[in-house]
Amino acid sequence: MAGAASQAKGGGGERADMTAWLAVAAGTLGALMATLDISIVNSSLPTIQGEIGASGTEGTWISTGYLVAEIIMIPLSGWLERVFGLRTFLLAVAALFTAFSVLCGLSTTLAIMIVGRLGQGITGGALIPTAQTIIATRLPRSQQPIGTAMFGATAILGPVIGPLIGGWLTEHLSWHYAFFINVPICAGLITLILIGLKHEESHIDQLAEADWFGIVGLAAFLGGLTVVLEEGQRDQWFASPMITTLSVVSLIGFFLMMTGQLTAKRPVIRLRLLIDRQFGSVVVMGMVVGMVIYGTSYTIPQYLVAIDDYNALQSGIIVSLSGIPALMIMALVPILIRVVDIRLAVGFGLAMLAVSAWMESSMSSQSSGGDFVVSQLMRGVGTVFAMIFLNQAAIQSVGPDHASDAAGLFNAARNLGGSLALAAISVVQDQRLWFHSRRLEETLHANSEGVQAYLGGQAQALGGMAQALRALSGTLQKEALTMTYNDLFWLLAVSIGCALPLVLFLRPLDTNTKPAAGG
After folding, report:
1. d(Cα 136, Cα 7) in Å, to the nearest integer?
2. Domain span at residue 256?
3. Which of 30, 34, 43, 476 is the right S-S partner for 167, CB 3.0 to 4.6 Å?
4. What does the alpha-carbon distance between residue 310 and residue 330 come to, in Å, rounded to a whole number?
5. In whole angstroms, what separates CA 405 from the centre of its chain?
């Protein structure tokens, strides 16, 4: 995996051949496709929800389901690579990803869509860390910084440009093509895998030695926890038998996972690494960055569609603006890692993310996409500095023997942050929308002269009192929704600010070591 850079072949003067670069291209393409599909539905989500008969809160599962499945799969990928061999494993997940993408594109109900998205998440979660494995094992150390920059671009740009591509396809073709587009991409990916990677012998016998307590526990814990967070508010929390049952399932999963930590020779996810002060801080900050990346790529399109009547393409363009600084800076990443102190870089990145979210917490119902331009550009700069440097810190925080476990934990934490952000958005949005609606209604008194005059004017303009009352209700709802989104951005800014002091626990990177192949 990513941290296996210390085992990469070759020294500083060795050069990778064309086959090795084709393998790296395969890994990068697979990772791009996996990260792209996290957010490709965000800008077209209202359209999809309408066609498959899902409510706004139910629609979050189209995004959350993918993330949950991906989180579960990422820590398992290293073990599955060893069991089946890298080439066989990648071919299988690429083919299955294609099949699940087609299923999503053909969906006519929410249930079918969620099954397809879960399948996409499981197979897509395998494509991300395997890309890091290829960079670490196929490139000599002198060329690994190039691979790092390539993979870093996919990890950051995928979720950012997803809404733009999905929006364009929705407006010019149909939302179905946001999933069908994966078919030709997967065909190219499979071709690159066949050319760039050699067949490796499988080790099926390792299935008997697997940390099954950890595997089952991880799935039950993360899956149950996310469902509880997502559905708890709507189902009145523990008044619901389903929420109570899933809470128990999540708790049992946690204890099973802990049992695996104590009994397995090689736990599926090595949680002991979190005890290290630096690595634990890196994981927490990585989770916060994941909240920013995935939370904003979901929230901003929803805001623009609901408040400003933007279509899927227009909202996707606004979200993709944060990718511009990433493209400009990414080529300098190998140099920046060597010359910039990690504490300054990560602190600067997190500060930029906090300020960008704070700027978006004072929107009005008259705000438009143009009001997001500066904050989105700032967010792009902050994401590059925070994410790339945190990845290098994650790898260097542990010894070479545990570097692959560190990479898996860091990537899982980043996606877990995104999953928690989407679940929290659903809960906060329901509560704060109700709160602001009631408060606004309380300011309007039926006998107020101002209210009567306003309704009289509206009734005359719209052709009746019923129409005037509907218009007033719509205005109140729009104002309440705007204040709700402001609350979401404010909470995001505060969360980033709370994580900012953790940069003090970071140690300077070893400038004599080539950057690990991570992202």
Report:
1. 7
2. 211-267
3. 43
4. 30
5. 20
